[in-house]
Design brief:
Chains A, B: GO terms for molecular function: DNA binding. Chains A, B: InterPro entries: HTH_HxlR, WH-like_DNA-bd_sf, WH_DNA-bd_sf. 2 copies of one chain form a homodimer. Chain A is mainly alpha-helical and about 120 residues long. Chain A has 6 helices and 3 strands. Chain A has a single domain, classed as Winged helix-like DNA-binding domain superfamily/Winged helix DNA-binding domain (Arc Repressor Mutant, subunit A, Orthogonal Bundle), CATH 1.10.10.
Chain lengths: ~120, ~120
């Protein structure tokens, strides 16, 4: 379980949740949900991610069993990335949460304005 | 939108997603999903969180409009925390993802073992 004990925040599920909701993890899952991509295609689709960070993100998701990496020994060689069955499930869930968050931004922004106004009124 | 441009990872939804999926954010939402709690009750229910980190997490979630803070000017004074309507929606979604992750831990662990074994076989 995720709550209930002093070690709750350190449980293995915590690490996996971090991998799939990380800044680049969410975006990689979103791109691969649209189909198989080569490394350079993932990078272009996301934008703003360094080669090193993307390689690290893909490797973490591959090790967790969410991403499948397929190297083609052709000339020039290339590597395809796609979602496993487990990865597709994860991607759909994470992406639904991300889109919900995106839709609620106006409400969140209004709440922040109200909060800041109340705070400066008290100050 | 969350993907598609160079600023994708910097959009406002990113920040909100981080607040609700943060180590303590997830656990706070989970506790408040069970009902209104005082600060000390939230802290006890989570376990392992410092007073400062919990106060910061609650404040961030309050400012985003997910958590309602109600101070009771009685003796001794106490403060109640509960979810707003928006917060309850967020909590249900985040919690469903966290629980899914928790259920899939055996599969993730098996994937990691296979990955590490393949890697050391290549080395």
């Amino acid at each position: 379980m995720l709550t209930g004990g002093p070690d709750a925040a350190m449980c293995p599920a915590r690490g996996v949740l971090e991998h799939v909701t990380s800044r680049w993890g969410v975006l990689v899952l979103g791109v691969l949900l649209r189909g198989t991509h080569r490394f350079s295609e993932v990078r272009r689709a996301i934008g703003g991610v360094s080669e090193k960070m993307l390689a690290q993100t893909l490797q973490t998701l591959e090790r967790d069993g969410f991403v499948r990496r397929e190297a083609h020994p052709v000339i020039p060689p290339h590597v395809d990335y796609s979602l496993t069955g487990l990865g597709e499930e994860a991607a759909r869930r994470v992406w639904a949460l991300a889109q919900w968050t995106d839709e609620k931004i106006p409400e969140v922004m209004a709440a922040r304005e109200a909060y800041d106004a109340a705070k400066s009124a008290r100050a």
